[in-house]
Known about the structure:
By secondary structure, the protein is an alpha/beta fold.
Amino acid sequence: xxxxxxxxxxxxxxxxGSDEVEIKGIAYDSRQVQPGYLxxxxxxxxxxxxxxxxxxxENGAVAVAVEKEVALPKDVAVLFCNNNRKLLxxxxxxxxxxxxxxxxLVGVTGTNxxxxxxxxxxxxxxxxxxxxxxIGTIQNMxxxxxxxTGRTTPESLDLQALFGEMKEAGVTDVVMEVSSHALDLHRxxxxxxDVAIFTNLTRDHLDYHKTMENYRxxxxxxxxxxxxxxxxxxxxxxxxxxxxxxxxxxxxxxxHGADLQAxxxxxxxxxxxxxxxxxxxxxxxxxxxxxxxxxxNALGAIGAxxxxxxxxxxxxxxxxxxxxxxxxxxxxxxxxxTTAVVDYAHTPDGLENILNTAKExxxxxxxxxxxxxxxxxxxxxxxxxxxxxxxSDYCIITSDNPRSETPEAxxxxxxxxxxxxxxxxxxICDRKAAIFRAIAMAKVEDxxxxxGKGHEDYQIFADRTIHFDDVEVVKEAFLEEDK
Length: 483
């Protein structure tokens, strides 16, 4: 593809060189550049891509996109744009032929529930015989083929390449999680969303967004982009998201009047049941995933599937067949009958949701193992501690991903909130030791909740990243107890 065919679809302008040069690929990492590539220099938070322009040329780049002045040979084609993150998205979409326009695309955003909602929709679409693409926190999938994922929403160029791969594989429908970072950093620019879903908005990512208003506004970008929207009106940010969408909106809720209303709710250890009220008709719904939050996830999924033209019978059959999502209220049971639940809950609201769910059916004590990540919003640490202490019978505060921070210091921040509740607790920095301690304490009717990391199979420290999987460690601890 000639450079002229690419840059004329963007906000960039040609500073020097010929735009008749043939572009064989695009990269924003100089190490990925091959002969014939266009290198896009991104000004990042930790490094500046403009420092690697020369390396890109040495690797064979024939064109470079910059957003600041860089001395370059006159024969090198140079594009300029004030915002190369936007430019990267525009170039990627043009290079791969705007693949999202040729598939039905659903984007799910919110603090909690994104992953579970995408899996529910995927299952319904498969029930309908569709070839489905999935993009999210746990994994990316093309049909049944699993792909590695590095972040919730890929960088714009990688996202467009993935869309292109999906289209070539015959994917008709794509369901993806859309993070606030991705929206704010233009990763999903030039992406054609047919339906957007809003799950909820609670305190998270304030290390990046600084204020809840900024966080909400970033989420709102998705609803400005989408043709239709499905919105949780029980959440106070729901009205804002609804106002952002210029197309048709379906609302859902439990406590407030909505297009999709859940009533007559029953929750137990095996799942939830409720009556769905939609357009004057009622439908019995059964989910094999416990918790009130599961009802919200199901309602959002149902709304999106209705917008996609799927009949209610197929929708309810699909969502009732799914047995759960890895790292989302994932149960592990010992031979003696002791139960633990592993969950990704890493926000105060997320932790409160799973602990309230546990209280619905646990006959014995709730023993909670949890922590907070380093290099993230410190203000939520005592809040997490307070939630755990208020809703648990015993707490073990431990490490999550401490990153560059001292683990002991993070635990002390969390302890402030737990101490206020009067709940008995202890602090064990070593996460494995903390999980083993909780399992050793638990009796058959007790429930051990291991929160914070869910599906993650690693732990990040200042100087290393190690393999660590909460489910594996729980199973190992159960084996010791069962001996």
